[in-house]
Amino acid sequence: MAGGRLVLRLAVLAAAGTTAVAAGGATPDAAQMALQPADVPGAKVSGRAAKPGTGYVASYTRTFNLRTPYSRSALVFIESDVNLASTAATATRDFAGIRTYLRSAKGREELATAFVKGAGKTVKRKDLALGALRTPAIGDGAIELPATLKIKGGRVYAAFTFFRLDRVVETLITLGVRPVVQADVAKLGSLIVAHAGAQFIPTSTAPPTIAGTPQQGQTLTALPGTWDNEPTFAYQWQRCDASGAACTDVVGATAQTYAVSAADVGTTLRVNVTATNRF
Predict the structure, then answer these.
(1) Considering only CA atoms, which of 207, 186, 194 is closest in space to residue 279?
(2) pLDDT band at residue 7 under the 50/70/90 scheme
(3) Structure pTM?
(4) 3-state secondary structure string, the chain?
(5) Is the pLDDT of residue 259 over 60?
(6) pLDDT value of position 221
(7) pLDDT value, residue 231
(8) How far apart are alpha carbons 256 and 41 in whole angstroms?
(9) End-to-end CA distance of the chain
(10) Residue 229's pLDDT band (boundaries 50, 70, 90)?
């Protein structure tokens, strides 16, 4: 459906002029952030990988066509467009731009005109009515634009929902034969947020190491290794037996550095590194 491609373009346009650099190592999997087939039972899935726009390091679109009603809304079409920005600041800025665009008369008219054009030659601009903007409780911010399209034999109801989570700017389009219930949009959005959050959990790509000489009077330094997704680190030094077994925490030794003492002579020292972010 052409209308779905339209909104993906709108979500990426605001990113012009930024730099496409992945933060923290490997780029999370945008395909895993979108709605998954298991999230929409009974739907026919047609997915396509999309090239990212300027300032974005990955994007993915997954489309669902339903032969059976989904929840109270009897949705017949769902599209999840995930756009992964280079930084959280980029996503926040661009989401603010989308919000401003949809609040403007020009932006709403451009969206309506493009959606009608994508719906087919028999649909006229006067057939589409846009509702008031709504703010579903999804992610770190959301804005939803409902619409009603008059077609031969009845009406079709749509909701264009934009929200963000950290570096993700998501467009969720729902199209149904009855008014799209906001609770259903929030349910779908919450699933997307959960998928995205799973991709942002810190992941080790190179293990921690210890620098320094393991002798009494020397200072050892824990190097956290390499991790994706920009975590902060916590440390716990441990004292083990000579073979490296039977390890116990050294009370109070939670700094990145550790001063080797007489009690450590003849033992093996180990450090646990814990990486944490908001997810």
Answers:
(1) 194
(2) very low
(3) 0.77
(4) CHHHHHHHHHHHHCCCCCCCCCCCCCCCCHHHHCCCHHHCCCEEEEEEEECCCCCEEEEEEEEEEECCCCHHHCEEEEEEEEEEECCHHHHHHHHHHHHHHHHCHHHHHHHHHHHHHHHCCCCCHHHEEECCCECCCCCCCEEEEEEEEEECCEEEEEEEEEEEECCEEEEEEEEECCCCCHHHHHHHHHHHHHHHHHHCCCEEEECCEEECCCCCCCEEEEECCEEECCCEEEEEEEEECCCCCCCEECCCCCCCEEECCHHHCCCEEEEEEEEECCC
(5) yes
(6) 97
(7) 93
(8) 49
(9) 34
(10) confident
* Residue 150: Cβ within 10 Å count: 14
d(C-alpha 1, C-alpha 79), whole Å: 10
CA distance linking residue 45 with residue 174, whole number of Å: 14
CA atoms lying within 13 Å on the CB side of residue 70: 25
Residue whose token pair is 């309506």: 112
Q: How far apart are CA 151 and CA 50, in angstroms?
A: 30
Residue corresponding to tokens 């030659």: 121
Q: In angstroms, rounded to a whole number, what is the distance separating the alpha carbons of residues 142 and 11?
A: 13
